[in-house]
Amino acid sequence: MRDVAPPAARALVLHPVLRSDEGERNPGARLDEACGLAAAIALDVVERLVVPVNRPQPATLFGSGKVEELKGLIAEFEITLVIVDHALTPVQQRNLERDWNAKVIDRTGLILEIFGARAQTREGSLQVELAALEYQRSRLVRSWTHLERQRGGFGFLGGPGESQIEMDRRLIGDRIVKLKRELEQVRRTRGLHRSARKKVPHPVVALVGYTNAGKSTLFNRLSGAEVRAADLLFATLDPTMRGIALPSGRRVILSDTVGFISDLPTQLVAAFRATLEEVEEADLILHVRDIAHPDSAAQRADVLAVLTELGIDPDTDHRVIEVLNKIDRLPPEEHARLMSRNERLIELLPVSALTGEGTDRLLQAIDLKLAVERSVVAFDIDLSDGSALAWLYRSGEVLDRHDEGSVAHVRVGLEPGAQARFEGAYAYRGHPA
Predict the structure, then answer these.
(1) pLDDT for 185-197, tens place per residue?
(2) Count of domains in the chain?
(3) Is residue 39 part of a domain?
(4) 279 and 316, same structural domain?
(5) Which of 110, 136, 162 is where one domain is finished?
(6) Cα separation of 224 and 243, whole Å?
(7) Does residue 130 surpass a pLDDT of 50?
(8) Which of 70-84, 128-142, 155-169 has the least mean pLDDT?
(9) Angle between the 169-198 and 122-136 helix axes, to the nearest 10 degrees?
(10) What is the 3-state secondary structure (H, E, C) of the chain?
(11) 24 and 105 fall within a common domain
(12) 67 and 215, same structural domain?
């Protein structure tokens, strides 16, 4: 007899608005985002509410009257899971579970669940487990086991890994130490792969942006690949890379990365640092924005904050190009205004990854940006070193060369980062020509 999947958990999504948060973001958009997070792991959201919180209560976050009101709602709709789109202390979580007779999960726990379900590579899985254990160490409660029964996911969060939830802090600490060692090994391997790529004379163009901004759809449009692109938050977690040709014939490596999100759990900021190393070392960074989203400006601010944490100043870093995606969702007059206003800009480009509108111009802008940033460097290469000479001819534009004795004096135009890649692969140091 064929197994029948159990029904999805009936969920209530609450977005608390604290007085200190008022005016910072659109509460309705934040509630939509929280429901999108729930949908990303196939939960059945039967009710959703924005809840003003004038005086946060240490025991329950919400006031006693609101807790009682929500208790009636939970019973009426037979809700088994309450998602609070805010950070909860372990005490608040346990008290709310007791008062509401339902499982309660906060924003951090929900994001960890999604990451656990989405991670595909070994590095991604290790990073999720490390982040979840660090979060779990202060709780040691069975917060996630109901989700594991509802849908496939990352095993250690419940079900097969349930015993880990019962571990004492010492055992969890031992596991964290082991995971960090394994992650360090994975990162060393990634570093070796990156070193190998540096020998390939192609610039790296990294896509970054808020989750669900359309990065993977744009990646597929530009590269012809078939990376998972869905209208789901965190549809992409593990970095994906493809080579593409620009209009000039120059080849670049396009890299799709994990989506950013507001209030990303601190555990995940640290755990996914290695994933973002691709961005730090990229020759160009395409910041993909969902320009049609009601909270687009706040999402932009969140992404810029993360880039700043990575040491990339969006205001001064010449590598950043802002791509205004989803223009197909704009009203006609706004669409026309945006297209005409940005006709000559390189750093701000409107596109529709879905329809392809504007992507030709984006490729041309990438081409032009790389050409503008090209530097002219002089090298003195041993004539017997055919590999180094071939690299320069293949990766740059040799502007001048004259051979003297056993040395070739070469003046070559190189794209951003190419000089460092060449010098890292060969024992030569260039100087401005």
Answers:
(1) 877 776 666 565 5
(2) 3
(3) yes
(4) yes
(5) 110
(6) 10
(7) yes
(8) 155-169
(9) 150
(10) CCCCCCCCCEEEEEEEEEHHHCCCCCHHHHHHHHHHHHHHCCCEEEEEEEEEECCCECCCECCHHHHHHHHHHHHHCCCCEEEECCCCCHHHHHHHHHHHCCEEEEHHHHHHHHHHHHCCCHHHHHHHHHHHHHHHCCCCCCCCHHHHHHCCCCHHHCHHHHHHHCCCHHHHHHHHHHHHHHHHHHHHHHHHHHHHHHCCCCCEEEEEEECCCCHHHHHHHHHCCCCCCCCCCCCCCCCEEEEEECCCCCEEEEEECCCECCCCCHHHHHHCCHHHHHHHCCCEEEEEEECCCCCHHHHHHHHHHHHHHCCCCCCCCCCEEEEEECHHHCCHHHHHHHHHHCCCCCCEEECCCCCCCCHHHHHHHHHHHHHHCCEEEEEEEECCCHHHHHHHHHHCEEEEEEEECCEEEEEEEECCCHHHHHHHHCCCCCEEC
(11) yes
(12) no
Does residue 177 belong to any structural domain of this protein?
A: no
What is the domain-level CATH number for residue 250? 3.40.50.300
Among 61-75, 233-247, 343-357, the range with the most confident prediction by mean pLDDT is 61-75
Instruction: Considering only residues 256 and 6, tell me which one the structure prediction assigns the higher pLDDT.
Output: 256
pTM of the model: 0.70
**The amino acid at 151:** R
Higher pLDDT, 265 or 61: 61
Domain of 94? 10-110
Residue 213 belongs to a domain: yes
Check residue 314 and give its pLDDT: 81
| Same-domain pairing of 338 and 410 | no
